[in-house]
């Protein structure tokens, strides 16, 4: 571990402080005074090599394919915790004991209702609007319907955690054209969500532990993931002192993108097209490798994971188990497995270290449960919510400065307006 590094710029040596993480391979050079001392800024499009904060929520070791939430490996959390326990862990720093869990669950139940205006407002919006647009909008307008004492207090994040599944179910029901249904706080979070999705007037959703377990695990896998695009968006807005609901509403918009959470919908759409066109896998692999073709293999590649994505490994197992237990024959899963196998043997994917990511198998799980494609990224957002909230709170607690990157200007040099001709 070193505390300083020397850099040489045009013959002058500058000593820069080192910021050390808890692991020796996680270290940064603090360049915050670089421009002041040398006149240089750093140039790093896409923040590929830039640390924006110190955080203690989650950690990824991309070379080893490791993911930790508050120090606990994702593989252990999946085996031993529920999604609600994971929310508590991410928000409060440790696994709750039974008393803490009961208190937390009761608090979530307390806020489990929506202002009646939500139902009126959502009715005014056309049905063809994408569910991610709905979710971002409804999250944003929560600001207008939340009592000011809550907005100021610590309960604000519990309020959001509690209301989010109601918004998600409301959007789903609006999309398929059935009226909203009340939440049932007597049952577990994920069971309640499925009940709110699949109950219709003459037939209530029938509790199914296989489906509930698969969905709960998928939510856990999404719960946090360091400084990804949507989390950074949430932190960036928070750094300007924007409120929690508006910051998260913007995070939802960032997640919507196909390079980010929107990839889960794009994967299934891609696999369906492949299936319709005769499943010629090599043709699609060659298309993905062709630099002149904008097509990319959706659900493949990751900025940090350069060996494998541990979430994808777990999601694949969850998908296989679910499909087996439900007794479904899913040609999409079969095709996905063949595609993965072929891509992993291809030198292009090997050299660029491109592996399946979480989105490669998550859509197959949602589809087996009966959740439509357009809702996939909304489900991702539901899972990511505790992470977004924890990062927003951490950013506030650290009093991080406002996020404001620099640029290299390549436009016109100063010139004068000439209207003479
Ligand atoms: N198919 C084909 N080539 C790819 C792919 C892919 N899926 N992903 C990356 N590459 C190539 C890319 O063309 C580039 O090649 P070259 O060095 O010759 O220019 C190289 O691999 C590095 O890619 P990059 O785009 O510079 O890497 P990045 O870290 O900026 O992007 C990524 C990461 C996830 C956006 C990208 O891999 C991608 O677009 N994947 C498909 C979309 C996807 O599955 N997204 C979900 C990400 S995981 C869940 C989440 O975080 O939301």
Number of strands: 6
Determine Rg (CA atoms, Å). 23 Å
Give the strand line-up of the largest sheet: 1-2-3
How helix-rich are the residues, as a percent range?
40-55%
Helix and strand composition category: mainly alpha
Query: What small molecules does the structure contain?
Result: carboxymethyl coenzyme *A
Shape: globular
What proportion of the residues form beta strands (DSSP E)?
5-15%
Residue stretches low in confidence (pLDDT < 50, at least 5 long) are: none
Order of helices and strands: EEEHEEEHHHHHHHHHHHHHHHHHH
In round numbers, the mean pLDDT is 94
Number of helices: 19
Distance between the termini: 66 Å
Largest sheet: 3 strands, antiparallel
Structure description:
The protein has a 3-stranded antiparallel beta sheet. It has a 3-stranded antiparallel beta sheet with strand order 4-5-6. It has helices spanning 34-38, 74-80, 83-92, 98-110, 116-124, 131-145, 148-152, 156-176, 189-198, 209-222, 229-239, 244-256, 263-276, 281-289, 310-326, 331-344, 347-351, 358-369, 376-398; strands at 4-9, 12-20, 27-29, 58-61, 66-69, 72-73. The radius of gyration is 23 Å and the shape is globular. The chain is built from 19 helices and 6 strands. Strand 1 and strand 2 (12-20) form a beta hairpin. With 421 residues, the protein is mainly α. The protein binds carboxymethyl coenzyme *A. Carboxymethyl coenzyme *A binds next to helix 18.
Brief descriptors of the model:
mainly alpha, three-stranded antiparallel β-sheet, 54% helix, 421 residues, binds carboxymethyl coenzyme *A, 7% strand
């Amino acid at each position: 571990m070193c505390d300083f590094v020397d850099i040489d710029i045009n013959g002058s040596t500058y000593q820069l402080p080192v910021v050390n993480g808890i692991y020796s391979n996680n270290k940064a050079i603090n360049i915050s005074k670089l421009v002041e001392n040398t006149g240089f800024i750093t140039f790093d499009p896409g923040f590929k090599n830039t640390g924006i904060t110190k955080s203690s929520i989650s950690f990824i070791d991309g070379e080893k394919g490791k993911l930790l939430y508050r120090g606990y490996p994702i593989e252990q959390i999946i085996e031993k915790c529920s999604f609600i326990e994971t929310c508590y862990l991410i928000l409060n720093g440790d696994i709750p004991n039974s008393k803490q869990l009961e208190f937390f669950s009761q608090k979530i139940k307390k806020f489990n209702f929506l202002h009646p205006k939500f139902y009126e407002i959502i009715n005014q919006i056309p049905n063809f609007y994408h569910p991610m647009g709905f979710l971002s909008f409804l999250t944003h307008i929560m600001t207008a319907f939340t009592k000011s004492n809550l907005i100021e207090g610590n309960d604000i994040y519990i309020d959001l955690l509690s209301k989010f599944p109601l918004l998600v179910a409301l959007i789903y029901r609006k999309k398929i054209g059935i009226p909203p249904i009340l939440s049932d706080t007597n049952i577990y979070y994920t069971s309640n969500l499925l009940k709110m999705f699949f109950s219709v007037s003459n037939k209530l959703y029938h509790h199914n532990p296989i489906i509930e377990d698969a969905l709960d695990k998928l939510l856990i896998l999404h719960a946090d993931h360091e400084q990804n695009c949507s989390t950074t968006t949430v932190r960036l807005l928070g750094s300007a002192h924007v409120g929690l609901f508006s910051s998260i509403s913007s995070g939802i918009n960032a997640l919507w993108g196909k390079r980010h959470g929107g990839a889960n919908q794009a994967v299934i759409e891609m696999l369906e097209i492949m299936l319709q066109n005769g499943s010629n896998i090599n043709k699609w692999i060659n298309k993905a490798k062709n630099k002149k073709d904008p097509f990319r293999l959706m659900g493949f590649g990751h900025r940090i994971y350069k060996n494998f994505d541990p979430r994808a490994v777990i999601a694949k197992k969850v998908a296989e188990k679910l499909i087996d237990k439900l007794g479904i024959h899913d040609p999409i899963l079969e095709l996905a497995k063949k595609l993965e196998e072929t891509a992993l043997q291809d030198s292009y994917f090997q050299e660029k270290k491109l592996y399946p990511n979480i989105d490669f198998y998550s859509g197959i799980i949602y589809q087996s449960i009966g959740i439509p494609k357009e809702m996939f990224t909304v489900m991702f957002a539901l899972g990511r919510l505790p992470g977004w909230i924890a990062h927003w709170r951490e950013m506030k607690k650290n009093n991080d400065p406002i996020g404001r990157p620099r640029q290299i200007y390549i436009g016109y040099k100063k010139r004068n307006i000439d209207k003479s001709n």
